[in-house]
């Protein structure tokens, strides 16, 4: 009987200790200033947005989490609400990381989207197909248009995000890589279009010259064929002498590259094509 009583008292003492410890920890964490957030370290936030974000963070800190826990403690800050707030104020935000630094500072790291192409003067698109509003009036990026793509929306951290369909997204990075190469050897690409048949057209600024690509083709193979073609006569000489009159380079048909110039002088020889103002030729590899 005494042995059972001792065991009972040990259990009572153990659970009492656990209870008292939990109450003490709760009191220290939420009723004392020991773990109170007194400052916010903002990294990657545009300078013009810092003041309003800090002001809103102070407001959030005054609203209890689940109407019970203080929101200004490093254990109970309102993570999702803070992310939603920052994404709303800075729509160019891709990711937000929150991490307590010490006992009184919350570090907030904001990573912006990296624009790949522009949709219009105020919207850009990323390599993942996310369309977002930029905070400057002009983008020095190629314009992207797609007749065949659709958009879908979803909620990310409380903000509606618009994204292109998966098929179009798969093309973005390969096209961007090809655009960089064409910029360096042919002309700066000003506009990119994908029509309803899946043909990709890369235009110069005047939209006079273009490179045509089938979206189903391997872009690495396309570049290999294109590079060989522009380094092969007679196209090589034509691009040197009459580049401004280039109408198109067509890479859609296997390893063949078709090209066409306009306003050719009468002294030029036009292979396998009878005309007075245009020339069309095929180079095979």
Shape estimate: elongated
End-to-end separation in angstroms reads: 99 Å
Mean pLDDT: 82
Please work out how many helical segments DSSP would assign. 6
Rg (C-alpha, Å): 31 Å
Unreliable spans: 265-280
Strand line-up in the sheet with most strands:
7-10-11-12-13-14-15
Beta-strand percentage? 25-35%
Structural class: alpha+beta
User: What is the number of beta strands?
Assistant: 15
Helix content: 25-40%
What would you say this structure looks like, in words?
- With 285 residues, the chain is α+β, with helices and mostly antiparallel strands.
- It is 34% helix and 29% strand.
- The chain has six helices and 15 strands.
- The strands form three sheets. A seven-stranded mixed beta sheet has the order 7-10-11-12-13-14-15, with helices on one face. The protein has a five-stranded antiparallel beta sheet with strand order 4-5-6-9-8.
- Strand 11 and strand 12 (210-214) form a beta hairpin.
- Helix 2 runs antiparallel to helix 3.
- It starts with a helix and ends with a strand.
- The relative contact order is 0.07.
């Amino acid at each position: 009987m005494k042995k059972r009583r001792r065991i009972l008292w040990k259990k009572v003492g153990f659970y009492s200790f656990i209870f008292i410890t939990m109450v003490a920890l709760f009191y220290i964490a939420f009723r004392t200033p020991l773990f109170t957030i007194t400052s916010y370290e903002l990294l990657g936030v545009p300078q013009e947005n810092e003041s309003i974000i800090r002001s809103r963070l102070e407001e959030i800190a005054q609203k209890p989490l689940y109407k019970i826990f203080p929101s200004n403690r490093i254990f109970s800050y309102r993570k999702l609400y803070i992310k939603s707030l920052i994404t709303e104020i800075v729509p160019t935000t891709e990711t937000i990381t929150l991490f307590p630094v010490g006992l009184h500072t919350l570090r907030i790291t904001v990573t912006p989207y990296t624009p790949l192409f522009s949709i219009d003067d105020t919207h850009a698109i990323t390599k993942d197909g996310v369309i977002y509003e930029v905070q400057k009036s002009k983008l020095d990026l190629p314009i992207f248009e797609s007749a065949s793509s659709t958009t879908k929306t979803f909620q990310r951290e409380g903000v509606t995000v618009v994204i292109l369909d998966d098929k179009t997204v798969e093309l973005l990075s390969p096209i961007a890589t090809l655009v960089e190469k064409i910029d360096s050897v042919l002309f700066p690409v000003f506009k990119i279009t994908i029509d309803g048949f899946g043909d990709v057209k890369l235009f110069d600024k005047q939209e006079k010259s273009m490179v045509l690509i089938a979206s189903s083709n391997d872009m690495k193979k396309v570049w290999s064929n294109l590079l060989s073609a522009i380094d092969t006569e007679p196209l090589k000489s034509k691009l040197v002498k009459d580049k401004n009159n280039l109408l198109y380079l067509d890479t859609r048909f296997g390893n063949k590259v078709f090209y066409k110039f306009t306003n050719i002088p009468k002294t030029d020889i036009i292979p396998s094509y009878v005309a007075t103002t245009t020339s069309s030729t095929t180079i095979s590899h």
